Amino acid sequence: MAGAETTAAPGNPLRQESDKRLPRIAGPCSMVIFGVTGDLSRKKLMPAIYDLANRGLLPPGFALVGFARRDYADEDFAKVVLEAVKQHARTPFRQEVWDQLSEGIRFVQGTFEDDAAFSQLAATLKQLDHDRGTGGNHAFYLSIPPNAFPLVLQQLSRTGLAQPPDPGEGRQKPWRRVVIEKPFGHDLKSAQELNALVNRVFPEETVFRIDHYLGKETVQNLLALRFANEMFEPIWSSNFVDHVQITMAEDIGLGGRAGYYDGIGAARDVIQNHLLQLLALTTMEDPVSFQPRQLQIEKIKVLSATKLVEPLDETTARGQYTEGWQGSEKVVGLLQEEGFDPNSRTETYAAITLNVDTRRWAGVPFYLRTGKRLGRRVTEIAVMFKRAPHLPFDQTMTEELGQNALVIRVQPDEGITLRFGSKVPGSSMEVRDVNMDFSYGESFTESSPEAYERLILDMLLGEPSLFPVNEEVELSWRILDPVLEHWHADGKPEPYEAGTWGPASADEMLARTGREWRRP
Ligand code: BG6
Question: N or C, fewer C-beta in 10 Å, the chain?
């Protein structure tokens, strides 16, 4: 895999080739997107590819091939890409970058059943290898519904596209990789079937599963915060931590997403992947190194030790939004959203309680919650510390003192907040909570790359650290399956009004243990 990349050496002779600060540039390759006319492709993938090109991180001969049913010529498809780039790219538009990128854009028309279309795809890639020097290195991005996977995988296998050809004596072997998007199944059993299906065609080390939360700077910074500093780690355990709240709140509704979301729900959509990955990064031990395998080993260890706290009636909550106000806008409830079954039982809010049964964490509850149409958009990990065992102040002086907290603000307003008690100026010894903030915007001048930029680049470089392996996916389903079964047997989610912080049962869930949710 190494050797497919090159490093930029911006003028400093002391910085070696192995200097990880140097930007890594992908080697020659082509990337095929299936489902190229979909939302994800338009809003995230094509803009990310342009942003990478604009940052000089794609090789000059890079090729992008769209595969879809529409009858486009290469130029028509290039116009679609251009439109998406102009609307959604993070970095400024530069004509010369676009001109170079667009020379490598191709389109293959066909359905997934269409053998001839896949043969055409193989021929197109071969031609690109010849014309643009992509060297037989091909990535296949499956931005398609999971029920289309078997067919596409079978076609890639049949046409030999999944297998790198033997390069002949002394020449470097080209690579083939597949990228898959969630949902990785809808429960443990289906995830195992899906993994088996994918691995029949692509060996595990060539499978890149996207969990875009792992591509976020703030999520990677969790590892820097924990393992590059000395002051947090000693207090990062049940000795000092009372509980942890991991919140992913969104203010958007589900209009336009019925096809994907109805029947899936909040727990499968984001707890199974994003939130359990955040939990794993928060709780794992320090890896021996940042080698991908070492990171996987530590994540797998904590995910294996993670258990639901029971009884599930009391330790979980789920809800479905009804009409209400999102700021000044009146919004409809889920059951009135276009395309949703008017009797849908799909939850749009989910909260669960977990324990991580390791020496470090035993006894500390981890509360995970997510919801659509909540008060505001915020994702954060709040580590809530125990109260001081003895307060030598008059009780009235500490009425406004809460728990110490370290809050990793994943988004928006990316940063970290430390919350602690401070004396209120004046003659008394009154103590009140104050915040100390680190904010990315203030500390760094460069803006953070989009998660998809980082992940697409890593995939093209063959760098798997930020991609969950199938064992992590299966362990996550093992954790979640009992809640899903419990909810399935248990009737309907509780209604909550759009624009609020979720159903009453979620508040009761924490109140039972004498705690309350943060209102970020
Ligand atoms: C996706 C979920 O994985 O993440 C969506 O399917 C959700 O339902 C989205 O809206 C949120 O991503 P972000 O990066 O905006 O937090």
Answer: N
99 is in an annotated binding site: no
Could you read off the pLDDT of 451-460 as tens digits, one per residue? Answer: 999 999 999 9
Model pTM? Answer: 0.94
Across 30-49, b (16+ Cβ under 10 Å) vs e yields bbbbbbbbbebbbebbbbbb
Cα(269) to centroid of ligand 1, in Å? 8
SS3 category, 210: strand
Catalytic residues, by residue number, are 274
**In this structure, which amino acid lies at residue 92?**
P
- The residue whose CB lies within 8 Å of the most ligand 1 atoms, and thus the one to mutate among 182, 210, 250, is 250
**CB-ligand 1 contact for 472 (6 Å cutoff):** no
182 is in an annotated binding site: yes
Q: What separation in Å is there between the alpha carbon of 367 and the centre of ligand 1?
A: 19
Q: Which two tokens stand for residue 459?
A: 């995939």
Which residue pairs from 234-241 have beta carbons closer than 8 angstroms and sit at least 24 positions apart in sequence? Answer: 235/385, 236/360, 236/383, 237/360, 237/361, 238/360, 238/361, 238/362, 238/363, 238/364, 240/385, 240/386, 241/364, 241/383, 241/384, 241/385, 241/386
Instruction: Residue 111: count other Cβ atoms within 10 Å of its Cβ.
Output: 12
Residue nearest to atom 13 of ligand 1 (CA): 213
Tokens for 496?
A: 């909550």
Ligand 1 atom nearest to CA at 273: 3
For the chain, list the domains and their CATH numbers. 25-166+174-181 (3.40.50.720), 214-449+469-512 (3.30.360.10)
212 assigned binding-site residue? yes
- Amino acid at site 83: E
Helices (H), 106-251: 115-132, 149-158, 188-201, 217-227
Q: Is the CB of 269 inside a 6 Å radius of any atom of ligand 1? A: yes
